[in-house]
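Minutes, project huddle
Topic: does the predicted pose make sense with GFB bound?
PN asked that the exact inputs be recorded in the minutes so nobody has to dig through chat later. Recorded below.
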Amino acid sequence: MKPTDKIYVAGHSGLVGGAVVRVLTSRGFSNLLTRSRSEVDLRDQQAVRDLFADEKPELVILAAAKVGGIKANFDAPVEFLVENLQIQNNVIRAAHEAGARKLLFLGSSCIYPKFAPQPIPESALLSGSLEPTNEAYAIAKIAGIKLCQAFSREYDANFISVMSTNLYGPGDDFDLETSHVLAALLRKAHEAKMSGAGEMIVWGTGTPRREFLHVDDLAAAVLFLLEQYNSSEIINVGCGEDISIRELAELICEVVGFRGELRWDRSKPDGTPRKLLDISRIKNLGWKPTIALRDGIARFYEWFLDNYVQSMVSLR
Ligand code: GFB
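Predicted holo structure (tokens), as shared on screen:
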């Protein structure tokens, strides 16, 4: 890759796309192509075709997707399925038609079966039934993987698919209806501390286990794979360790400084019992995560105070 390569980051204003833009910029890539949703709606096939025909990016990072936590996924399966299929079908096809040299498609650990062996190897794909709470999103992402693989086989395209574990970090969603667990609990713990509440509500039973990767680590892995990985076989990216939701809630309370009780809302779903990725494939290539969970949460809390809390204050 050259610093002058034209790289289109689809979804640059999201959690992953934002981190990818930061890492590319910091490593000297100066020819980045980005478009906001109001400029180009990626669900619109003609708009996407026109963008690629006009701009002809050499490299494409497909980080645009409709995403959300367990509740958002469960409440809106139609939108999660249809919008993700539209976005990825449009972008992947247009990238091929416009002659992109390489495309990197971002998937998620929820593509694997609910009861996959742990840690989950890439070979577990399509070996069992999916977790129902995020089946629609998972089916869309599996279709994206298969489309990239089809382009590789039929047209010799260098389209790779990267499966990331649960992410957190700057640019995360803090809306309690749609967010993922880590951002939700950070906000809840902060608000409970500030209001002097005696307890904070956490969904489910606390027993599910999840693996959390700081989005800056994922972005570094994306750049690493863009430079080094040229296989149509999917590849996992995670931190290699998981933690129960109870342990996560306790850790967040400690970092934030909330000393009240946790109250479990068992009417909310637990989702899949465990989701830990086997990251030996990417480790063997020479990549490893650098941000430990406690440090990552502390950094993320600082970002939350400087950005999210500040923006709320200025709205008042
Ligand atoms: O992060 P999360 O929403 O999604 O929830 P998944 C993880 C676990 O945290 C579940 C529990 O067991 C939740 O019940 N949890 C506890 C909470 N308190 C909260 C809370 O306040 N908010 C939220 N959101 N969860 C998503 C998928 O699954 O993971 C997506 O739905 C995607 O498709 C994403 O794959 C990475 O880890 O269960």
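Observations noted during the meeting:
- The mean pLDDT is 97.
- The longest strand covers residues 102-108.
No decisions taken; revisit at the next huddle.
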